[in-house]
Amino acid sequence: MPIGNAEPSVRPVPAGRTDGAAAGSARRRRGARARPGRGGSRAERFAPYVLVAPAILIIVVLRLYPLLLGVNFSFTGDGERNGQAVGLDNYLELIEDPLFRTALSNVGLLVLLLPVAVAIPGLLATFIYLKVPGHRFYRSVYFFPAVLSPVIVGAIFNLLLAFDGPVNAVFEAVGISPVDWLGNPDVAMFVVVGVHVWATFGMALVVFLAGFATLDAALLDAARVDGASLPQVIRHVIIPGLSRTIAFVAVTTMVGMLTSMFGLLYVMTSGGPEGSTYLPEYYIWIQQGQMNRPALASAASTVLFVIMLVVGLLQVKLLRRAGGED
Amino acid sequence: MKQRALWSAVLVVGLATAGCGSASDTGPSSGGSTDKLVVWDWKSGEPSAKAYVDKAKADFAAKHPDVTVEFVAQPFDQYYTLLGAAIQSGKGPDVMLFNGGGQIRDRVDALVPLDEYVAEDKQRLAGWDAFNKDGKAYAAPVTLQGHPIYYNKALYEKAGLDPASPATTWDEFLADCAAIGKAGAKCFALGNKEGAGIQFWMSALGSGILTAQEYDDWIAGKRDWTSPNVKRIFELWKEAGDAGLNNDGANSTAMFNDSFALFQSAKAAHVIGLMSDVGHWKDFNEFLTPEKLGVMKAPVVTAGTTPSLAYDGGIGYAVAKWTKDPKVAADLVRSLTSTGALQAFYAEAGAIAADTTIDVSQAGPAAAAIVAALDSGKPALHVALSSKTLDLMGRVSQQLLSGSISVDEAVKQLAASDQAG
After folding, report:
1. In a domain, B186, yes or no
2. Range A89-325 classified under CATH 1.10.3720.10
3. How far A155 CA lies from chain B's nearest CA (Å)?
């Protein structure tokens, strides 16, 4: 088979919309010329499909098909109604389940806490960039928790935050009444999010530092010469200069909070106290693994998927806009 | 334009097929071969279970020398998730270990009724009820699981109480707790982080609260949530929390094993523990010494009740319906519950075995007291509830302890969940 002849048809379409039609017609002409009497023409036409087939197959078989299967299962019943179409019953049950509503409102809480989770590494990176005393030391120390597994982090904080643990011992020593960090439903979710931020902000910090490397030092010097204070420098020089980095960190932090808090939740609170620290992924796991409700879990997964899709699309849009400003 | 048409097509196909198929497989399934049996459990990997597995294997090999047996130890955290996946695919182990109660009852669709194969063992083994559904036995019990109230005799002495005669009524018990509190220890070691504390509470104290008739009705599925005695279970739970009988931060204390550690380190005088696996007489003996560990009956709350030990079949082996020859697989289950194997399990792993013919006199007074109470024992109250209701009860119990819900509201929610499922 004349592989060489296949080459022109897989060449990328030239960039720029306006030439597209011309290039297409040129290709058609060439195709028309090649077709008569050449056995290789069919192979030539199919070659690109064959070449992309493995990638497409992997995506379709391992990604899209299971996804559709999951959505499909969410319209079937559990237990005695296993295999029967039940319409929207599972979704109605989800809406009525206070636990799932808590899980969703916790997602909302995570979105609200996002600015804090982005601001912390941003501020610390700013201090390191401005070379506060000991900045080299802090740079490595801040990154350290990022290498720990969530299970280890959870276990460490379980010990620290136990009712009779060291944190409460310090509180008692200075005369503050002890707090049941992981047993008080009003506090527990914030504690878990706080621990998650502590454990993961090192990565965002590194991204910020990389962003600072692209910042024009002359601008900072100019601002200083003009007598700008630190808050003014941050507000008018650093934030506009780092808008792309900030957008990127916001996206990755949000995805991280929505998808990788399971380990911490599992170890630190098991969704409790009083179900106050449920997140959708934990709910899905409980329904599938503990309650033997795979169809209901499929419905919850579908809802989570839709949420992630919306959040993801919004963020891609945000990234594009931030990119466009540069 | 073309893309839009494509998406519309995808959408139409998707909607047309929505609700077809099923989330868990029901169809006829293959898997497993007659010359090899695969066993799933979460026990066989532990060194303390080695003697048990070896004995069972030897017993089975004598009956079926041509069949090999492979034990696959799964992590317990993931066990029912993995098993759920296996059941959905209709392929998996031939024989598998189950906890009694809801965990097996929710999954009997995937299991073979064992009655015709294990008829001879019905008398020798105790605890079948936990593995029954609709009158059929789906697993043979290996250990018994129950909820004795353990107490620390050394703390009783320190508080000026007689360790040989623990309280028999609730008022006496509260008076003893006050004395123990003065001696610097808490009355109960309670871990309710997972919401399991209330289950233990209900089952350990229930026989002193519900009348015999109410108790039997409860187990039989006729649960009267409007009964004042049922409500009393939750009232006492809340009162004990409000009165400071429990260790601080019970809602953030893990039962396994932080609450047991509190009891073992003599920071609390009582703990509602288990009979087998963990948090039981063998663990406590090691820390408190066998002489200082006592087991008491539930104090009488409602006059006229006769407290009894709450226990059920703890873990048991079941046979999957996709196995090639259920008879061979059931024979393996019989080997796994033979007297020789269970004797090894009791001695090594520290379990009250389902075989009532085993002699436990070597294990100390606490184990002897438990075994002596088996005869008059009854199934545990919480085991009769569905896993969904138990999950809700865990959360409600945390709310009761923190005071964010009233007892009436708690019982109302539980009744709704119990009657729905």
Report:
1. yes
2. yes
3. 12
